[in-house]
Structure formats: C-alpha cells, structure tokens
Amino acid sequence: MRRSDEWAGAATAAAAGIAALAVLGLALPRVPLVSMIGQLLPLLGLALLPLALGLAALRRRRRAAGVALLALGILGLTGWRFADVSAEATAAPDAGVPFTLISFNALYSNREGVSAIPALLASGADAILILEAQQFQAELPRLAQAYPYRLGCTPPEPCDTLLLSRRPPVQARQTWLGAVPAKRFAQFAFDLDGWRVTLVGAHLTKPYFDELPAIERLVLANRLRAIDGPLILVGDFNATQWSPDLRWLAKRADMRFSGFYVPTWPAAAGGFGLPIDHVLTRGATVLSLEPLPSAFGSNHRGLVARLRIP
C-alpha cells in the first residue's frame, strides 16, 4: 500500500469519527454526557476542514468534497441556531439610557479572583455580577465604596452569587432555582432615569449529568416571563446558545441573546473556547459584548456588556 493511501485512509477514518460524534450530539441532545457533544458542534465542523484539505491534496477529491460539505453543513446549522435566538443587528439607537454590566465567574478554588477588583472598580460599570464569589466576602467594604447596594453574601448565607449596584433597588430577591439548594437566582429591579429595569443574575447547573438543569431552566423561564419592563438576564449557563436547552429558554422567556460571539470557557482556550456565559435582553439593546482583559485566575473569562435601555 502506498503511503498516500495510508494517509487518505487515516483522514477518512478521522472524518467519519467526527461525523459520528456530530450526529450523536444532534440526535441525542438531552442525554447526560452526550449533550456535551452538541456544545462542540462548531469545533467539530472546523476540525473537518483540514481533513478535507488533506484529502484534496492527496487527490481524493470526492472524499474531500464530501467532508467539506459535511463541515459546512455543521457550521451552517450552528450559525443558524445561533442567529435564530440572537437580537437582530441594528445601528446604535440615538435615544435611551446607557448601562454597563459586568459578569464574572470567579471560581471557588481560585486564589487570584480578588485581583480583578481594581479592574472592576475602574470599569465604571453600573452593576457587577460575581459568581462563586466566596473569596470576595472579605472585600465587600472595599467594593461598597463604589457599589453601595448589593444582593447576596449576607451572613449567615454562604457567599456564592453576589450582585453589586450603584443604584438602589426598588425590589430585590435572591433564591434558589428549584433544583440545587443554593441561591443562584438574583433579581434586582432599579430605576434608571424613569425606567424600571430588572436585572437577573443566574448560575445554572452543568447540563451533563442529570435532569436537574431542566428543572432550573423551567423555573427560570417562568420567572422571567412574569417580569414586565426592560429585562436583562446575565450569568453562567454552562451551555452554548445553539444548544436546544438554551434556545428553548430564550424562546420560552421571550428574550434574545446579544448576538455577539464571545468564548468564555475554558479561559485558557481564548478564542477557541465555548461561549457559556451570556447576556440576554428584552426591551434593551446590547451595543457591545467583550471579555474582561484577564481571567484573573478563573477558568471563565468575564464579560463586559454595554447596553442601551430601552
């Protein structure tokens, strides 16, 4: 057997394996562990492209064309799913009130998370959501100088979900999402130049092992549906927006994702990671969405969202 035949066979086998994974992820999106494959769809599609090029270089043109079409199909499906629940791209509105928001999963085991405080304070953000915020407990007096209003991290409750605001609340509550006994739902309504705006921070359970996340999504969606006026949902959802679960959540709650693709996890992967931290809105426009300048030791990159309300 010629060496080119061996390389062509290896590339074909690799492409077939990737295709089988993609089909499995699409066919069984809610089976524990298998659902993780669906989160990787665009990466699987991208992985097929060099294999198609390799087969073309080896003059296996039909195989190359088939693999390329499969890659484009996977990427096209992911793109459609992404756009289907994203806000339409529009020019920045002239009217409305600007609002800046930061979301950051600091990671419980991270000893460097509080090093983010100077960047958070210098950001000028109107509100900050910090998840897995235990290490920030001792820094609350320092944060209170710029953010005198907070929800969460009040003894004897554990410091898990922390929401900081420059504006006082007109209504606030923090509770659990119905599955995991941790208060990972924070609802904070405030007045923004005459607009009653509701900011909701949420941290959903990883959707890979059991049915608990489905309970959380249902509870969260129903709570969001009951909120009137401009609404912002932000947090760590442990899933991509092209997953069936988050597409269902957005549609059930009548909300839209920002439309910006910002990979947040794992932080070490940079632009090759997955976007599992999100900002969704109803009655507000996300003008930009960018990562924080550093992960500050966390395995998540934080998000800086600039919005206009309404």
Automatic annotation (TrEMBL):
Transmembrane segments: 7-28, 40-58, 65-83
InterPro entries for the chain: Endo/exonu/phosph_ase_sf, Endo/exonuclease/phosphatase
GO molecular function, one term: catalytic activity
Keywords: Membrane, Transmembrane, Transmembrane helix
Coiled-coil annotated residue ranges, if any: none
Domain Endonuclease/exonuclease/phosphatase: 103-288
Stated name of the protein: Endonuclease/exonuclease/phosphatase domain-containing protein
Organism from which the protein derives: Aureimonas flava
